[in-house]
Write a structure and sequence with these properties.
Elements lengths: L5 H16 L3 E6 L4 H16 L3 E6 L6 H12 L6 E3 L3 H8 L7 H7 L1 H4 L2 H6 L1 E2 L2 E2 L1 E3 L1 E4 L2 E5 H7 L7 H13 L3 E3 L5 H16 L1 H8 L4 H4 L2 H14 L11 H9 L3 E5 L4 H7 L8 E5 L5 E4 L2 E4 L5 H14 L2 H11 L2 E2 L11 H16 L2 E3 L9 H15 L5 H15 L1
Parallel strand pairs: 1-2, 1-3, 9-10, 12-15
Antiparallel strand pairs: 3-13, 4-5, 6-13, 7-12, 7-14, 8-10, 8-11
Helix pairs in contact: 1-5, 1-16, 2-15, 2-17, 10-11, 10-13, 10-19, 13-20, 19-20
Length: 414
């Protein structure tokens, strides 16, 4: 990628000079509250402080961000929006349509964001052609994590098919180990569901069903097979899963209480925070089949009054997209940089696999947005799907009933 030219650098210098004069201030709403996540956001706080800014933290617990979005809406309706908000996918566009987002194109153009971001990622950050959000990373959602010693003791290899996964889980269950660490929260159920849908059905099926919302795909025999596998997975979860946070499920794998977890690569941040080494203490593998489900963390900037807060937004956007922060943050978080020009020399084997498979999926047309993590669908449609998925996972509902309920729920949400 080309380096910023002298004019761009001069423009950035002018922007930052203005920011310094205004004593940048930000209030940042986010849901990074687990160990690895908190360590990651602390890096950004430190950089902001080192540049003379004042950071007011507004963390709202809950890995899926639902509670954070409730808090955000209350703030916006009261006329007191936070300076910056962790936001992503279609939700960025929804808030833009309400007329409450700021334009940060001056920062993006001065830094040359278009030159260092993949086209698909950049598209999520723009509102009618203007930059309104800054990407922090690219998460892969469709990962399987495992405790290396638990698998070794049970004589199990990392599974590469669902048949092999089910057999391995059965072996662990018979040995008295929880096969699948899972938290009984709607977004976690949805994560499991979309991973199975892509893995079993393939990229074309996933796109038709969970991006395009094609009624035929939603009612297909393939979708029934997805719910069948979900029912099988439910049998591998322990009885105390209800309401468990995702990072506590990850801790079960770290501590050897469970064999596997199916979760995005933010889970790797928890392994790293616990001092665990990939390939030795834990194993990572993409879910069986083709494709790559992405989830991009980003910050949208909301319309605010006052030179200090505007300056804070510009400085925050500049720091988020800085190569140093992109490297440091993603080393802590478990994801890979959104910028394509950041070296991966310091990253582990899981990150290298993620980067290589993302590029291959982009080239092959199987790089797909996560529905469960707000990248593919707007809230009403995503919520309709997740309601059915959770209802099925927590009942004895048949796959036939689930498929019909799914098609009806999506139709009613349009």
């Amino acid at each position: 990628m080309r380096k910023l030219n002298v004019l761009a650098a001069s423009s950035m210098a002018a922007l930052l000079a203005g920011a310094a004069a205004a004593e940048p201030q930000v209030e940042v709403l986010h849901w990074w509250t687990s160990g690895g996540e908190a360590k990651s956001v602390a890096v950004l706080q430190q950089e902001f402080a080192e540049r003379g800014g004042t950071w007011t933290d507004m963390p709202v617990a809950g890995g899926g961000g639902d509670a954070a979005m409730t808090a955000l809406r209350a703030r916006v309706l009261s006329g007191n929006a936070p300076t910056a908000v962790q936001l992503k996918g279609p939700a960025i566009q929804e808030w833009y349509e309400e007329g409450v987002l700021s334009d940060i194109s001056d920062v993006a153009e001065a830094q040359g964001w278009s030159e260092v971001l993949p086209e698909a990622i950049a598209g999520h950050m723009k509102c009618e052609g203007a930059w309104c959000a800054a990407p922090v990373n690219v998460h892969r959602v469709d990962w399987i994590w495992a405790n290396a010693k638990v698998l070794e003791d049970a004589g199990i290899e990392m599974p590469t098919t669902w048949e092999a996964f089910n057999a391995a889980a059965q072996t662990l269950q018979e040995a008295g180990v929880v096969p699948l660490a899972h938290g009984g929260q709607a977004w976690q159920d949805a994560t499991l569901f979309e991973v199975v849908a892509l893995s079993l059905g393939g990229p074309e099926f996933y796109k038709a069903a969970l991006v395009d919302l094609d009624p035929e795909a939603l009612k297909s025999d393939q979708m029934k097979a997805v719910f069948d596998q979900m029912r099988t997975l439910r049998g591998f979860v322990d009885d105390n899963f209800s309401g468990r946070e995702w990072n506590l499920a990850t801790a079960m794998v770290i501590n050897g209480e469970a064999g596997f977890q199916i979760m995005g690569d933010w889970a790797k941040g928890e392994f790293a925070a616990a001092g665990k080494t990939p390939g030795e203490d834990f194993l990572c593998a993409s879910a069986p089949g083709e494709g790559f489900l992405y989830n991009v963390d980003s910050f949208a900037m909301f319309e605010v009054d006052g030179e200090d807060r505007v300056a804070g937004q510009k400085l925050l956007a500049e720091l988020i997209m800085g190569p140093t922060f992109q490297e440091t943050f993603n080393l802590n978080k478990g994801s890979i940089p959104a910028r394509t020009d950041v070296s991966l020399d310091k990253f582990d084997s899981c990150a290298h696999t993620s980067s290589e498979e993302m590029q291959a999926s982009a080239d092959g047309g199987s790089l797909l947005p996560s529905y469960a993590h707000g990248m593919a669908l707007r809230g009403a449609q995503a919520g309709a799907i997740t309601d059915v998925v959770t209802a099925h996972f927590n009942s004895e509902m048949s796959s036939d009933e689930a498929v019909q309920m799914l098609a009806d729920a999506v139709a009613n949400s349009m």
